[in-house]
Amino acid sequence: MITRFLGDTTILLGRSLRHIVRSVDTIITTAVMPVAMMLLFVYVFGGAIDTGSDSYVNYLLPGILLITVASGIAYTAVRLFTDMKSGIFERFQSMPIVRSSVLWAHVLTSLVANLISLVVMLAVALLIGFRSGAGVLAWLAIAGVLFLFTLALTWIAVIPGLSAKSAEGASAFSYPLIFLPFLSTAFVPTATMPGPVRVFAENQPVTPIVSAIRALMTEQPVGNDIWIALGWCVGVLVVAYFLAISAYRRKIS
């Protein structure tokens, strides 16, 4: 059963990845737009923002990486919605394949696509001045946090992908996720924010994730932020996974 699942998922993963390569607008949105945002903040707004950091790109990068993931997972929902509406799911169900492999192929496609986007973002950040003395273990921890964050958001994306009435509706869920880093420590310290906004920024999930990644990149003490970040990522992942699986079972039953 496991061998069949792995084989079916691999074949369907290849199919989904080919669709991404052929979709130029997906590549532009998931890679080029976050790059443009980073350049805008570094070269236009960076000089006016006091973060207490020697390099604004070092301060900014963790939040941009999260926005990159939030932008990318919108297409997971759209791809899933498109497959549902095209009838391909019904065709797959009539074939001798493991049913869950269809869903996992979309999830793995999201992980691969977002990995490419994150690598592109890191490369551009290096070109414009990002530097880090973090060691191998720190970068492995950063990769682990980003992996969990991407996986959690991907399973969130599965839910509207299965239940939306239109492609626009399938992708609309990502807008609050993209906006959330702006109300965190991603771009400015929370001390500069007005009272109610500061309270929200300091207690929402993106802030400890950004703070943990930034501390790891800059070789600063991580403190409790890493555990809070992991707690948020794992908690959201578990809830989103079970809700997505429940929605999937209703669709194919």
TrEMBL record:
<feature type="transmembrane region" description="Helical">
    <location>
        <begin position="56"/>
        <end position="81"/>
    </location>
</feature>
<feature type="transmembrane region" description="Helical">
    <location>
        <begin position="226"/>
        <end position="248"/>
    </location>
</feature>
<comment type="similarity">
    <text>Belongs to the ABC-2 integral membrane protein family.</text>
</comment>
<keyword id="KW-1003">Cell membrane</keyword>
<dbReference type="GO" id="GO:0140359">
    <property type="term" value="F:ABC-type transporter activity"/>
</dbReference>
<keyword id="KW-0472">Membrane</keyword>
<feature type="transmembrane region" description="Helical">
    <location>
        <begin position="20"/>
        <end position="44"/>
    </location>
</feature>
<dbReference type="Pfam" id="PF01061">
    <property type="entry name" value="ABC2_membrane"/>
</dbReference>
<dbReference type="InterPro" id="IPR013525">
    <property type="entry name" value="ABC2_TM"/>
</dbReference>
<protein>
    <recommendedName>
        <fullName>Transport permease protein</fullName>
    </recommendedName>
</protein>
<feature type="transmembrane region" description="Helical">
    <location>
        <begin position="102"/>
        <end position="130"/>
    </location>
</feature>
<dbReference type="InterPro" id="IPR000412">
    <property type="entry name" value="ABC_2_transport"/>
</dbReference>
<dbReference type="GO" id="GO:0043190">
    <property type="term" value="C:ATP-binding cassette (ABC) transporter complex"/>
</dbReference>
<dbReference type="InterPro" id="IPR047817">
    <property type="entry name" value="ABC2_TM_bact-type"/>
</dbReference>
<dbReference type="GO" id="GO:0046677">
    <property type="term" value="P:response to antibiotic"/>
</dbReference>
<keyword id="KW-0813">Transport</keyword>
<keyword id="KW-1133">Transmembrane helix</keyword>
<feature type="transmembrane region" description="Helical">
    <location>
        <begin position="170"/>
        <end position="188"/>
    </location>
</feature>
<keyword id="KW-0046">Antibiotic resistance</keyword>
<feature type="domain" description="ABC transmembrane type-2">
    <location>
        <begin position="25"/>
        <end position="251"/>
    </location>
</feature>
<dbReference type="InterPro" id="IPR051784">
    <property type="entry name" value="Nod_factor_ABC_transporter"/>
</dbReference>
<keyword id="KW-0812">Transmembrane</keyword>
<feature type="transmembrane region" description="Helical">
    <location>
        <begin position="136"/>
        <end position="158"/>
    </location>
</feature>
